[in-house]
Specification:
11 strands; TIM Barrel; 38% helix; two-stranded antiparallel ribbon; 300 residues; 2 domains; alpha/beta
């Protein structure tokens, strides 16, 4: 479940409520994401073809790793992930230490979900040239992996360099798993080379199957064990209390409808489903829905 780090319910109290409910109900993981800013300029095409500002849900977005540090202190079992943090906004040594610190304090519960982002204005605010997005992403992940390795750490890449040094703390498990938010063929192939999993947007069942198949096949071609990698299908459709009638988007609708979709993904050996946009319903209704879904779609 994505925590309510943005939108109408974004608050420390509501984040705490949903986090503790999800752990109590036996959910696998809680997630946050990074949004640096909501530009005043219109950026996205609206229904009439005119550009509009990005949605109001992004007006306030709590910082992802600090939020998870708060949640780590209030939970004991549930995995804590980011989907996504854009590593290009951060120095690799700083980012590696922040994830490692969170992993230590949470008792080895962290997954680092990373991605390239899409908004040029955010990259500009972070001082990152748009043309460096792909190569810089590869470089910074390699630098982070190096920081999590044995001391002394030394790294010399295209954009980042670390002189021989001790960089600590390390993640409690040695390495924190890295999953990549990837949807294009190129992004999936990159993830198959450098990451432990992917979190693609699953707009259709066939699309999710194709993404998982490409990821696993590419990993095998690169000499990696696909069985050790994860595919988590992401849906941006909020859960709804009542069923959707007629044509229904995949992974949208009521808990019972979602349970049917989840079973289809389970049959295709998709490892999990991430509900990326919390509903706008009141928190009691949200908890009722996630409790019902948990009974209808039990863990494998």
């Amino acid at each position: 479940m994505m925590l309510p780090v943005s939108g109408v319910h974004a608050s420390p109290a509501n984040i705490t409520t949903i986090a503790q409910a999800a752990e109590r109900l036996g959910y696998d993981s809680l997630w946050t994401y990074e949004r640096l800013l909501r530009p005043m300029a219109p950026l996205l095409p609206g229904p009439d073809g005119e550009l509009e500002r990005i949605p109001d849900v992004y007006r306030v977005t709590f910082e992802p790793l600090q939020t998870l540090s708060h949640v780590a202190a209030l939970t004991s079992r549930i995995t804590l992930g980011t989907n996504i943090v854009n590593p290009l906004f951060h120095a690799p040594v700083v980012l590696a230490r922040r994830y490692a610190t969170l992993d230590q304090f949470s008792g080895d519960r962290v997954v680092a979900g990373l991605g390239q982002g899409w908004m040029p204005k955010e990259l500009a605010a972070a001082g990152v040239p748009l043309k460096h997005r792909g190569a810089g992403f590869d470089d910074i992940i390699a630098a982070v992996w190096a920081c999590w390795g044995p001391d002394p750490v030394e790294y010399a890449g295209r954009f980042y360099a670390i002189e021989a040094s001790e960089t600590n703390p390390k993640p409690g498990r040695g390495d924190t798993p890295i999953v990549v938010g990837a949807n294009t063929d190129g992004g999936i192939d990159r993830a198959a080379r450098i990451a432990d999993g992917i979190t693609p947007l699953a707009w259709t069942l066939d699309g999710a199957i194709a993404q998982a198949t490409r990821f696993r096949a590419t990993a095998e071609e690169l000499g990696r064990s696909a069985a050790a990698l994860t595919v988590t299908a992401q849906t941006n459709h909020p859960m709804q209390p009542k069923p959707i009638s007629g044509d229904r988007p995949f992974l949208a609708g009521s808990p019972r409808q979602l349970a049917e979709d989840i079973e289809q993904l389970r049959e295709q050996k998709i490892d999990g489903v991430l509900f990326a946009f919390p509903p706008s319903d009141d928190l009691d209704t949200q908890i009722e829905m996630i409790e019902k879904l948990r009974t209808l779609a039990p863990a494998a």
